[in-house]
Design brief:
The termini are far apart. The chain has two helices and five strands; from the N terminus they run βααββββ. α1 runs antiparallel to α2. Strands 1-5-4-3-2 form a five-stranded mixed sheet. The chain has one domain: YaeB-like fold (2-Layer Sandwich). Helix content is 40%, strand content 28%. The protein is globular, with a radius of gyration of 13 Å. By secondary structure, the chain is α+β, with helices and mostly antiparallel strands. This is Plasmid stabilization system. Belongs to the RelE toxin family. InterPro entries: RelE/ParE_toxin, RelE/ParE_toxin_dom_sf, TA_system_RelE-like_toxin.
Length: 92
Amino acid sequence: MKLRFTIRAAAELDEILSYIDDRSPQGALHVKKRIHAVIGLLLQHPGAGRPTVRGMRRVVAYPYPYLIFYRATEQEIVIHGIRHSARKPARQ
């Protein structure tokens, strides 16, 4: 199964990790590893996330409060967004 990030999702992940890295490089490494581990699990179990209103699914990168929004098809998983759970959703 293929994995693809939208440009927006890649930018959000970069922004999250840069923000944390400015305060704690070690913390940023932990968050990055956990987000990538959760995405790796999605490749094995694409239906693991909870369905959302717009036909996407979301999963939490527990124990960190980051939500990963994605769509899964038979061929690929597309990451559409990553955000802190305390932030309001972006208007589209």
